[in-house]
Design brief:
The chain is built from twelve helices and eleven strands. α2 runs parallel beside α11 and α4 packs parallel to α6. It starts with a strand and ends in a 5-residue tail after the last helix.
């Protein structure tokens, strides 16, 4: 099974977005010319790229979710063979813990998405521990935005990979994904994965060049050419950051990298199944 662990539902027609909500998604994500598209487009893209499942990551920021958790759950119910749904809560809201309890206990969502740079909080802030306790209780993983954010109104200091170490240390039984390989701090992410087996990352990093060149520079030059293949092969997952980046070209570049085929299989799906606890 091939799983894209990093796609966003903010422009999906089936999310029943109003024009006002669609425009807010454009402004919040910095995708100013992106139009709404239907699930049929995702279906075509998945067939072309050889992708079986999409993990959809909503975002709750400023107390105004771009896509509500209830809508994510509804989308998963409508397309259970294609979509895996995560929840998002704004840690700045007093109701954040209750919202997460509801998302896991009642809506059945499979993990938590947090964006420190957008939500303006450090991963080890005091207000965060109650959320991680709930993830531990329900055995749900956390996907964090890490590294630079190309979205407007973000500060990178909240999402430097080293800010996540205390979370990994204090919650060894909660799997966490430092998305985007923490770029540009890819070596620091490798260090954390080497030290903490509950730390994962994804391949949703592409800011210069084309996928082949950028993956070569980031994953074979900036880090050792064989670090992933020999030491970190169980902790890297495929993610595209769709619709910001081009899913099909990214997965093709991963398939063409100089790694064992068994490592590519882990990156393209096996590690995601482990990260999700096999519960999809």
């Amino acid at each position: 099974m091939v799983i894209d662990m990093h796609v966003h539902p903010m422009f999906l027609e089936e999310a029943a977005l109003t024009e006002e909500e669609l425009e807010r998604s454009r402004q919040e994500m910095g995708l100013y010319k992106t139009d709404a598209f239907g699930i049929s487009q995702w279906e075509r893209d998945c067939r072309c790229a050889g992708i079986d499942r999409l993990c959809i990551l909503p975002l709750d920021t400023g107390g105004m979710p771009l896509v509500h958790n209830e809508k994510v759950a509804e989308l998963v119910t409508r397309y259970p063979k294609r979509l895996i749904g995560f929840a998002s809560v704004d840690p700045n809201r007093e109701s954040a813990a209750d919202d997460l309890e509801y998302a896991f206990g009642e809506l059945g969502l499979k993990g938590l998405k947090l964006h420190p740079s957008k939500q303006r909080m450090f991963p080890a802030d005091d207000r965060m521990w109650k959320l991680y306790d709930i993830c531990r209780k329900y055995r749900r993983p956390v996907v964090f935005h890490s590294g630079v954010s190309m979205e407007p109104g973000t500060l990178t200091r909240y999402a430097h990979p080293l800010e996540f170490e205390e979370v990994a240390y204090r919650y060894p039984d909660v799997k966490i994904c430092l998305a985007h390989f923490g770029w540009p701090w890819v070596r620091e992410v490798c260090m954390l994965m080497l030290k903490y087996r509950n730390v994962y990352t994804d391949t949703a990093l592409l800011y210069f060049d084309d996928p082949r060149q950028f993956y070569h520079q980031s994953l074979e030059v900036d880090i050792g050419k064989h670090w992933i293949d020999r030491s970190l092969r169980h902790q890297v997952m495929f993610g595209s950051d769709d619709p910001r980046l081009e899913q099909r070209r990214m997965i093709t570049a991963i398939r063409e990298m100089d790694m064992r085929e068994s490592t590519k299989e882990l990156i393209l799906g096996g590690n995601a199944l482990e990260f999700l606890g096999g519960d999809i």
